[in-house]
Amino acid sequence: MFNRDRWKEILEVLTKNWFRTLLTAFGVFWGILILIILLSAGKGLENGIKQDFSGVATNTMFMWTQTTTMAYQGLPEGRNFNFKLGDVGLIKDNVPNLRIVSPRNGLRNQQGVDNVFYKNESGSYRVFGDYPEIIFQNSMYVNHGRFLNYDDIKERRKVIVIGDGIRKDLYKETEEVLGTYLKIQGVNFMVVGTYKEKSSNGNGENAERQIYIPFTTFSQAFNRADNVGWMAITAKDGFSISQLLPKVVSTVKESRKVNPKDERAIGYFDLYEQFNRVESLFAAMRWIAIIVGTLVLISGVIGVSNIMLIVVKERTKEIGIRRALGEDPWSIKKQILMESIFLTIISGMTGIIFGALFIYGMNALLDSIGPVDMFLNPSVSVGVVLMALAVLIISGLFAGFIPAQSAIKVKPIDALRTE
């Protein structure tokens, strides 16, 4: 395998007509490069889309009430109704394998109408009444102070956690936020913490302009009694919320006296189902990239095989002489196979190097221009590179097999007569 004379001969054969060899190698080079570009671009798009789900409990559903469309138990159709706080306990008791059931309420912020005031500053922000578990369902983390806790819930404390965007809007840069009071629709609340979004895809600042109040405090301050606006429900790891969803909906239908056949009375959004669709989409995109890149690579390998057939044809007399001098047919076959594998691997490795440079350049460009929506950190795993190397070796063997077989079938006496 490492015979010096053999490798010298391989190099002489491949460089004898270097332009032809270069054009042949380009097919394999281009196939590998296209494969890497497609996979890295797909990964960049996947990373960008999944950044929206960063820190979010994706195994989650959201549920809210709508208008009934069927009469039931003496109650008319067209009835509006609300979830009650007691429904949370019913769901926990009747639906197994749920990790978090978060009742939520909210204030609608009217466009152009300020609802939050601090000293001489004011703004229009979304305000939510929540339980402490909501932090595990949203893409957020506390960067100063603390989040809501169950003492706040139990004692109905007038405390709030605000987004870092609100801090920038209402406070001076060096001003201490904790312990200050914001007035929300005429009610004063003390700031006990600020939060930031885990997502960095450009939408973080909008999400950081929200306010969280203990659910019980919110209900008391804004006269919501025990009504619940909507719920965020997360299943335990290993269990699909999509499978538990029908049981959740049927439980609240029974509690709120809604006809079991009324499909419009309760609205819901299955985040887990949407996340799985995104996963399936990118899995399909990966396969498309692999198939397209492989087809381009195969065309290059076919080119290598054709050129090796031409090389064998040109060396018919040489092969005949070597056979006449007693050289083993396997030795000649191995020579042709090594030439084919060498050409394939060199051109393929060049394609991998250029692909790596392309990925490096793309990441450097993204770093210089900042975050780009739906595109982040294009890359290709080491496993893909190793797989590409394996494909190159196998492709080289296949590319040289037919020419090698053709070479050993040459009869010495016929080869010596060839001009």
UniProtKB/TrEMBL annotation:
<dbReference type="InterPro" id="IPR050250">
    <property type="entry name" value="Macrolide_Exporter_MacB"/>
</dbReference>
<feature type="transmembrane region" description="Helical">
    <location>
        <begin position="341"/>
        <end position="360"/>
    </location>
</feature>
<keyword id="KW-1133">Transmembrane helix</keyword>
<feature type="transmembrane region" description="Helical">
    <location>
        <begin position="287"/>
        <end position="312"/>
    </location>
</feature>
<dbReference type="GO" id="GO:0005886">
    <property type="term" value="C:plasma membrane"/>
</dbReference>
<feature type="domain" description="ABC3 transporter permease C-terminal">
    <location>
        <begin position="290"/>
        <end position="410"/>
    </location>
</feature>
<dbReference type="Pfam" id="PF02687">
    <property type="entry name" value="FtsX"/>
</dbReference>
<dbReference type="Pfam" id="PF12704">
    <property type="entry name" value="MacB_PCD"/>
</dbReference>
<dbReference type="InterPro" id="IPR025857">
    <property type="entry name" value="MacB_PCD"/>
</dbReference>
<feature type="domain" description="MacB-like periplasmic core">
    <location>
        <begin position="21"/>
        <end position="244"/>
    </location>
</feature>
<keyword id="KW-1003">Cell membrane</keyword>
<feature type="transmembrane region" description="Helical">
    <location>
        <begin position="21"/>
        <end position="41"/>
    </location>
</feature>
<keyword id="KW-0472">Membrane</keyword>
<dbReference type="InterPro" id="IPR003838">
    <property type="entry name" value="ABC3_permease_C"/>
</dbReference>
<feature type="transmembrane region" description="Helical">
    <location>
        <begin position="380"/>
        <end position="402"/>
    </location>
</feature>
<dbReference type="GO" id="GO:0022857">
    <property type="term" value="F:transmembrane transporter activity"/>
</dbReference>
<protein>
    <submittedName>
        <fullName>ABC transporter, permease protein</fullName>
    </submittedName>
</protein>
<keyword id="KW-0812">Transmembrane</keyword>
<comment type="similarity">
    <text>Belongs to the ABC-4 integral membrane protein family.</text>
</comment>
